[in-house]
Amino acid sequence: MNRLVLHSTSLAQWYTLVNEAEDFFGKRLDTDLESYLVHLLQRYTNKPDISDTILAIDYLDSLATSGKLRQEKLRDVGDKCLLFSGFFPESANRRLVTVSYFVELGRRAYFYLAELHNAGLLTSKLYGLLRTHFVSLLDLLFSIRELSGEQQALTLLQAEELWRNTGSEYALKILKKHNKDITLIKNIPMNKIH
After folding, report:
1. Max Cα separation, the chain?
2. What is the pLDDT of residues 149-171, one digit of tens each?
3. Fewer CB within a 10 Å sphere, N or C end of the chain?
4. If you compute the radius of gyration of the chain from its CA atoms, what whole number of angstroms results?
5. How many C-beta atoms surround the C-beta of residue 64 within 10 A?
6. Residue 63 to residues 24, 59, 101, 132: CA-CA distances in angstroms?
7. pTM, to two decimals
């Protein structure tokens, strides 16, 4: 970012950053998704302990609970998976998993949340949207990271894996930038390529 933007609240700053990332990436989020993402970013702004989380254990722990506590824990898992995959994809390597692992776990948490709520409720619809558009939200977080001056969010290997498994447009953009002459083939198992 080359310009200094001053806002009265950190929430307004997050909205501005998300809007800039939407412009940068060339995609607009649904209003509900944009609002959820901004509030998610606000909620985790001062929580450095997020990196101490073991998401699989948190997910299993959420399934062992019930009621409101289950919903809160599942929401936290989905949200943390989104943040880990979008802002800290390098943590996947340290944890010996792929970025797609975070995507799948987060999508499952949001799916389960949507199922826990009655089908007619707005909350159910929102969690369904989060599951469906998880990768679009992820691409936007990658764009925020890039706008903030960070290096490219994904290695080429991560970009290929993420694009092949999730259809991430950001990952495809990276692959196209580095592999102009290579035709990309989606969803072909590696053992089928000779």
Report:
1. 58
2. 877 778 899 999 999 999 999 99
3. C
4. 17
5. 9
6. 38, 7, 18, 21
7. 0.85
Residue 93 near residue 117, CB atoms below 8 Å: no
CA dist 147 and 111 (Å) reads 30
Measured CA distances, 26 to 19, 139, 140, 187 (Å): 10, 11, 10, 25
How is residue 82 written in tokens?
A: 């989104």
Asked if residue 20 lies in contact with residue 145, where contact means CB atoms within 8 angstroms, the answer is no
Number of residues written out for the chain: 194
State the distance between the two ends of the chain, measured CA to CA, in whole angstroms.
44
pLDDT tens per residue across span 102-156: 999 999 999 999 998 765 577 889 999 999 999 999 999 999 998 888 777 788 9
104 Cβ contact list (under 8 Å, min separation 6): none
Whole-number Å distance between alpha carbons of 194 and 188: 11
**Domain ranges within the chain, ordered by starting residue:** 10-192
In whole numbers, what is the pLDDT of the chain averaged over residues? 86
Spatial contact of 33 and 129, defined as CB atoms under 8 Å apart: yes
